[in-house]
Amino acid sequence: MVASARFPFTERFLPLCLDFVDKAAQGFGFGGKETAGILLAAEELYAYYSAHAGLDSDIELVLQDEGYRLLFGISFSLADPDMRALNLAFNIDLDDEDALDMLGPMIAARSVSGLRLDFGPEEQVTLKVWREKEYPFSDPLSFVSGPKTGPMEISIPSPEDLRHFSSMVAATDGEFTPEFLLKGGMAAEMLKKGALQAAVIQTGADILGGVVWQGLTDACIEVFGPYVFAEDPDDEILTQLMDQAISAISRTPARGILRRQSEMKDFQRFFDFLGVIQVVSPQGEPTGCFYYFRQLKEESSSYVYSSSGFAKFLEREYDRLYLPRRIRTTDFASMGQRDYSVIAVEFKNGRTLAHLRPLCAGRDLVENLEAHIALLKSQDVKNIFFEIDTGREEEMMFTSALQEVGFQPVLVIPDAAVSDLVIFSYLTDGMQ
User: Does residue 47 carry a pLDDT above 80?
Assistant: First the structure.
């Protein structure tokens, strides 16, 4: 469900903005914490950017009920808006009165679960923030891994089935299991809203295994699992689950399937091997995240614009993966850069792993990257990755700065973004 509104972008309409968010969130049935976080973000973003907008500007507001989270979007026109306070590494000198003006956007960014930033034609700015519901982690449900008994049936689980399945997954201590799958309530809500799909195998009332998948982009679906809870010496459970998932995904417009978790035995039947990235586990032990990919539709040739220093890596990877990409080198000099860059940070695996993504480029790229690295190191984050979309030139502008501060490109995932997704890894003190 979506609610939207449009009105003049002036300070006098701030009460209308807040009333819209409050009433719409209540109508969607969201609780106090989610609504309070979005209301705070809406108030601070509106107050700061309306003060810098033109007198004849309009604003468009969108509030969307996604079940497990509440999403708020704000769209307006503003030339070169100052977005630096949205960075996690941004700090304010409280003795600097001019800097205190940025306190509002900084508070907004820290009151939500995540944010996304897009720039359109005619100085159009769209900022989306979301606040996830708070779900408890599932209590691990002990099970005895015994032989299969009776006929097996594969089916689409109900939300309660998926909640039960999540408790079984929580008992496996599997590496790189997504957090939503360790929170049965969240997984069940996402299933009801169509934010993920799943299949389980049962014999009678017993769940023997399951697999979950969700859209990474319109072109790429990410698979989690399969998780097998019974003895499966002939891989019958694993095979049926993967066949079911691949069959369902093949009927969508997606061009590829990605799996990035622990090592998968006999993966050759289902995937091609992309590579492995070395990481440090929450226990401080070295381990590897294995990346597998399956192409569903024939690739068409396309162009990628890249700096000359980064082009060599792309050429090598595209040759290795037989991807029909043509690289055009550029220094991006024709693209006007903003004063300040913005980087989004997502924590995973109990905060031992951080995924960074570019939201907009700026002349402070190196400085901003160094500030984020210092902050994450101070919080004992052992694994730092940066993801770049080769189909977005503004993101490709980050590549030289990334390599300058110590990131190295390690992997290309076909079609996992507007074009391909490149993973950069930063070697922290915990890595060898």
Answer: yes
